[in-house]
Amino acid sequence: MRIAVCISGASGALYAKRLIEFLNGKVELFVVVSDEAKKIFKNETGVSIDNFLKDKDVKYYDNRDFYSPLASGSFIVDAGIVIPCSVKSLSAIANGFASNMIYRFADVCIKENRKLVLVVRETPLSAIHLENMLKLAHLGVTILPPIPAFYSKPQTIDDIVNFVVGKVLDLVGIDNSIYKRWQ
Ligand SMILES: Cc1cc2nc3c(=O)[nH]c(=O)nc-3n(C[C@H](O)[C@H](O)[C@H](O)COP(=O)(O)O)c2cc1C
What we know:
The protein has helices at residues 13-23, 35-45, 49-53, 87-94, 101-111, 127-138, 157-171; strands at 2-7, 28-33, 58-62, 79-85, 115-120, 142-143. It has seven helices and six strands. The protein is globular and about 45 Å long. It has a six-stranded parallel beta sheet, with helices on both faces. Flavin mononucleotide binds at residues 8-11, 34, 36-37, 40, 86-89, 121-122.
């Protein structure tokens, strides 16, 4: 299975970190990171994205590199995840504004009818954000804001992160037991 994890500059780098840790070695994994996301990743996790990825089995592409295989619909990817997804990235994706590799890859997923999950993180949400999300939902994109549930009685930040990441994994069809399911 081939999966692309795109990290944009919203708060919530821990979600991307956990998702990549889980997928490492299990799938063919592609990672794209925006410039702002690089700074936020370091700020929120304490480790730079380069250091984090250096012992992972990932294909890591520059967000400006349109020569990446992810830029073309002829390169088959099973699912794409933008995690976290800023409202700027949401807006670019909703409008087909493919000016970097994250937006271009999302555009390719939409035109090729491939699974795309956006973990949109902002609060509160304006009508602009809601309209962009609705537009994409109508196109088959899954909008998955990182909203924790409390029926699983989370005790730690890890529990909350795992809940969101587990929901993402469920959506792209990857078996996992990283969060407590309702029985
Ligand atoms: C520390 C920090 C936290 C941010 N958190 C968010 C956020 O949660 N959601 C959001 O939409 N933008 C957030 N932003 C603003 C985006 O980073 C900014 O709009 C940027 O242009 C997004 O670019 P990108 O989506 O290409 O990475 C944050 C910025 C900083 C510096």
